[in-house]
Records
---
Amino acid sequence: MTVGVLLVTHEGLGEQMLRIAIQTLGFCPLQIETLPIDAACMVEEMDAMAAVMCQRLDEGDGVLVLTDLYGSTPCNIAFRLLSRQGVSAVSGVNMPMLIRVMNYSHLPLPELVEKALSGGRDGIVLCQQED
């Protein structure tokens, strides 16, 4: 078993990130689902969908919820999932974070959270030409 991953993001951001990550790696090593949130969504319905998805993804090792913008509706939905046992959430998802999570899919949830955080931070690099 591995930790399940739920991407709760604005519109189609999570789907596109997942598609690109799978294309980059050539496979998907863990169970990942996406929950796109649009501006006209019914938040209560999205909360219920997120809970069902979280339950489906948790095969006993927990669920890591990745969301895009701290304080936004997708993040608030992710935050409410934290009341469930075995759920952790990280905001600010980017491609390096997602690929790091996928590359370390064998880790337990607390260590996977740390990999997500380090992947997100380490993936932000100033690009400049060498003199």
---
Amino acid sequence: MSVVSLPLAAEELIPHRLPMRLVERLLEIDGKNGVVEALVAAECPLVDEAGRLEDIALIELIAQGYAALKGYLDRLEDKPARQGFLVGIKKLVWLETIRVGERLRIEIRTLAELDDFAVAEGQIWRGDEMVARGEIKVWIN
């Protein structure tokens, strides 16, 4: 088992690259749960002309957060990085508009795992304010 200290750049854990990599760093791990950080960049293709992050990006933030968590856990077991595919979205709740320059914290909780499938819940926070939450289903190849 490899020891990897946190925080760790998300680029080391997930296949996404700029401009489609939305998450920056894995901050914390607690079992199969974790916390990831993101900074909304103006160059992000999911930012509209008014500087607002589009709603679809909320799911991508949760999915990339889960990917970073899973990539870290695989690395601890000396497993190669695997690809994940989003296969379902459930209960997405958008509470507030997110804008360019805002720093976000994405809290990921693994709800279930069965063979190569997983269900995870994500909460997106801007400071002390929850701005979105949702649940994803992922197939890991």
---
Amino acid sequence: MIVCVPVTDDGQVDPRWGRAHRVAVARVADHQIAAWQEIEVDWDRLHDEGSPAQHHARVARFLLEHHVERVIAHHVGDGMVRMLGTMKIPLDLEAAGDAREAAARVD
């Protein structure tokens, strides 16, 4: 399964999904990280450039381009929850602590 989790500089789950500076895209199999790539998305800077719909579209394009099958985050706003639901991408909320460990917990 390919998951996406916002990650801080020190490897923790960033509590700001829609305003994350960096996210990790991970391939998880049998609760093990098979691949891990951290990508600077600059959503923290880009969030307020344009409308909320433009930002949601930016995030949606990223998820599609990286074939993300599940998002792991601490908090996600209502609009983003609706967008992920429309995309049929499951969302695991209230993640905290080590981002790799949070990603590995995916069923």
---
Amino acid sequence: MLNHLYLARILSGILLALLTGSLVYCVLAMLGAWRYRRSGAKQGLFYPPVSVLRPLAGAADNTEENLRSLFSQQYPAFEILLSVHTPEDPAAEVARRVMADFPRIPSRLIVAGPSPLPNAKVWSLRALLPEASYEHLVMSDSDIRHDPHCLSTVIAELEQPNIALVTCPYRAVAGPRFWPRLEALGLNTDFLAGMLTQRFLNGMDFAIGCTLATRKADLASIGGLEMMQRYLAEDFIIGNRLHAKGRGVILSRHVIEHYIGNDPFLKNWKHRLRWARSTRRSRRAGYIGEIFTKPFAISLLLWAVTPKALGLVILALMFRAGVAWSTAFAILEDPLLERCWWLLPVEDVASFVTWCLGFFGKTILWRDRELVIAPDGSFEMEPPPGERLSSS
């Protein structure tokens, strides 16, 4: 009995310390959001021509509208380069239809060929890069929708002194299923809060790849896209390597929309676990530190050990609500949070469970291929002998 009480006190003390650290994190996240909101959008005086690179793969419900948003940019001079892996890809027909509707926008569709390595996105970007006419680049995923001022904003930000990379925050938009909506709530609160905290404390030493603005010379300075294809999170690596070279990486004031799909539970869970394992293998210390981003889950564990700690659960919920308001509501203007705010505790528990499971295993299933993630975040596999990049 005494041993049981002693262990319970030790566990309560550990959980209380973790909860205290987590509440401190919430304060830092809210301060980071406040500082971000105070930073105004940059107005450009010089708008150089831009090559926009967008890999395509398959035609989801929103592929065409996402692509049309790219062609509708209010920018003086830009070209759009699109890629598919095979001519039979359904996205090719969508691309040709949109290109025909915007004849004044210079655009081309490139067939990159099947990718011999798992990161097919970088394979496609490698096919597009030699075709780019301009030094300034914007790389955008196919599940991203932009408002008409995206290019003008990110290029104005890129033209600041010593800035090599601009990375855009996003508002996750999910389909009608329960689990994707739950994930979107987490992305629009937890994920953005983590970025803003990092920006507040240490600046940006990484990037998120939904939309990146950079230059050919800056990409070449870190080994080019060829070095990026062996990584699952190539966007993080690009930002991290540019930062390590003393070049500036900034979080844009322009918010984009990221359509995360409408997967059922099992597929959604595998997707979450894939990213958890990848993050744990590539950023071990950072992954362990994610425990402080989960105040509600920690408070529930503390309550289970110490029934008198119910007040701390309520306190954790209040701090969590403050972070959600300062990110998803005040910055992203997320309509999902307005409708489904009451699901945030459920998402917090789901996120905590995924985080715990991420400590086990080093294999992931990605695009129907079983892969092993190396400690540096790269894939432990090589391309088949004789494979070379080709495009047409």
